[in-house]
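Much of what follows relies on a compact textual record of a protein's fold. Each token is a code from a learned vocabulary of local backbone shapes. The record below shows the convention in full.
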Amino acid sequence: MKQKFDIITSTCVPLPLENVDTDQIIPARFLKATTREEKFFGDNLFRDWRYNPDGSLNKSFVLNDPAYGGQILVAGKNFGSGSSREHAAWAIAGYGFRVVVSSFFADIHKNNELNNFVLPVVVSEGFLKELFDSIYADPKTEVEVNLPAQTITNKATGKSEIFEINAYKKHCLMNGLDDIDFLVGNKDRIESFERSRGHVVG
């Protein structure tokens, strides 16, 4: 979903599991879908953890716990490992998460999140642990993610960290642009550059 990204302040969903791979985020059987409908993939985010084998709700899984909710998923180290399926990012965005926080992301999955208007925020392991502690102590704990300033703040403790993001991707997120939108918006500049190099345009 194309949404401009500025500052998000939200409660969080804690998922303190390490090495969560893309097959756990969206199982392979859903890759055959002929739709990219956000609700379809969002409804099947963490499908095999959210539901028991008989199709009943797994009440012990955090997404089924009414105490937790919000636009920020706080995950353990090495989030999004495994296959490069973009469907995993579709599912995260489709569920309604705007931010995923972890101490490490698999590179391809990290880029897939950015391409789908989900901001992956890399924090130190110490900050991540403190964040989990705050959320479990009070599920109403809020976190502020400030993209212009590139800061994340645990509002329960007041502690902040600066996070890194590619300048181009930051521009796209803040302006609600995908790669094609960006190219179309710079069409005149691209054509001017091509003409300056003696290339025929049009």
